[in-house]
Amino acid sequence: MRKWAIAKLCIFLGNELCHLLTVFHAFGGCDTTSRIFGMGKAALIKKAMSSADVRKSASVFLSESSKSYLITAGKSLLVVALGGEEEETLLSLGQRKWSEKVVTID
Predict the structure, then answer these.
(1) Beta-carbon neighbour count of residue 36 at 10 Å?
(2) CA-to-CA distance for 17 and 94, rounded, in angstroms?
(3) Shortest CA distance to 48 belongs to which of 68, 72, 76?
(4) Which of 23, 50, 65, 70 is the most buried (most CB within 10 A)?
(5) Contact 57, 23 (CB under 8 A)
(6) Distance between CA atoms of residues 34 and 63, nearest Å
(7) Angle CA(48)–CA(14)–CA(76) in degrees, nearest 5?
(8) Cα(25)–Cα(44) distance, integer angstroms
């Protein structure tokens, strides 16, 4: 089990990212959800540090939002967290990742 010094982490991250830690905890795996393979809390935090779009998508989960807006934000957060481009869809990301693994050029 890995332990995090949250107070020190929040000083390092700043108020905005510290406020989003609960979202990264849920997406990166917690007591009630499994993490997605290759996507842990640290990876999400690093992406959020460099991407305003990741922070914007994550902040939707902490505000009162419609179901469709939450779904859109969740898909966007997953795409970027899994290494996709910010304008890419989950479907196109899956197809691209699959073809990168299957297609080889001799």
Answers:
(1) 13
(2) 28
(3) 76
(4) 23
(5) no
(6) 23
(7) 20
(8) 9
The distance between the two most distant Cα atoms of the chain, rounded to a whole number of Å, is 52
**Is 31:22 a contact under the CB 8 Å cutoff?**
no
Give me the residue label for tokens 């966007």: 76
Q: Which carries the bigger pLDDT value, residue 1 or residue 16?
A: 16
**CA-based R_g, the chain, Å:** 15
With beta carbons less than 8 A apart as the criterion, state whether 74 and 58 touch.
no
* Residue 75: Cβ-neighbour burial (10 angstroms; 0-12, 13-18, 19+): middle
Q: What is the pLDDT of residue 1?
A: 63
Indicate yes or no: pTM above 0.90: no
Question: What is the helix, strand, coil percentage profile of the chain, to 5?
Answer: 65, 0, 35
